[in-house]
Write a structure and sequence with these properties.
heterodimer
Chain lengths: 110, 114
């Protein structure tokens, strides 16, 4: 069945390292979202794309975060350099009226 | 600014009881109000959704009540079961201008005791 996939599922890294998270949206979905979930802030929208073009990335710290869609089957979220406060679960979702979420990437920055 | 405010933050209900989660929104342009359910270790999944032209929508044990004049909507879970224990998020969207962006509430962690 169609689902959003994310890799890696877990990532532990040291402060200052680059982190790349990948997402494969559901085939045919042309809108892709990146969210960050923490206990303190809940679900925060970081960025979203339509037809691979960024629509809004105002939720991302621009100095260290970047999001791209190299092609229709791949979305990436990069953090460089990573900091302990970036520790969270990062979700990718695709779809418009109904958003289908991936299983998330749990990031721990030590 | 939180465009959708959700309460309570946590809720404990006895099995068989009614769980009620409330949300309020500010943007009168919102025209789509979904509820998402999230189990530990999983991504949120759409549970039920309503549009503002109806005051209530029911799917099985789950009902959304919508009050357009008060800009409030709520989720009722009838005959709550331990399997309903999860985090619930309400959301609002102005589908025309934001191309499907959802503004989520902070979430409610529901625990149903057997």
């Amino acid at each position: 069945d169609a689902r959003v996939t994310q890799t890696p599922r877990h990532k532990v890294t040291e402060m200052g390292q680059e982190v790349t998270m990948r997402c494969q949206p559901i085939l045919g979905h042309n809108t892709v979202f990146w969210y960050r979930q923490t206990m303190m802030q809940g679900l925060e929208l970081l960025a979203y794309f339509r037809n691979r073009a960024p629509l809004d990335d105002s939720g991302m710290p621009k100095d260290r975060f970047s999001a791209e869609m190299p092609d229709a089957t791949l979305a990436t979220l990069k953090i460089q350099p990573s900091e302990p406060r970036d520790s969270a679960v990062y979700f990718c979702a695709s779809g418009v009226l109904e958003q289908y979420f991936g299983p998330g990437t749990r990031l721990t920055v030590t | 600014q939180q465009q959708v405010k959700q309460s309570p933050q946590s809720l404990i209900v006895q099995k068989g009881g009614i769980s009620i989660i409330n949300c309020a929104y500010e943007n009168t342009a919102f025209d789509y109000f979904p509820w998402y359910q999230q189990f530990p270790g999983k991504g949120p999944a759409l549970l039920i959704a309503i549009r503002p032209d109806v005051s209530e929508k029911k799917e099985g044990r789950f009902t959304i009540s919508f009050n357009k004049s008060a800009k409030q909507f709520s989720l009722h879970i009838m005959d709550s079961q331990p399997g309903d224990s999860a985090t619930y998020f309400c959301a609002g969207s102005d589908r025309g201008s934001t191309l499907g962006r959802l503004y989520f509430g902070r979430g409610t962690q529901l625990t149903v005791w057997p």
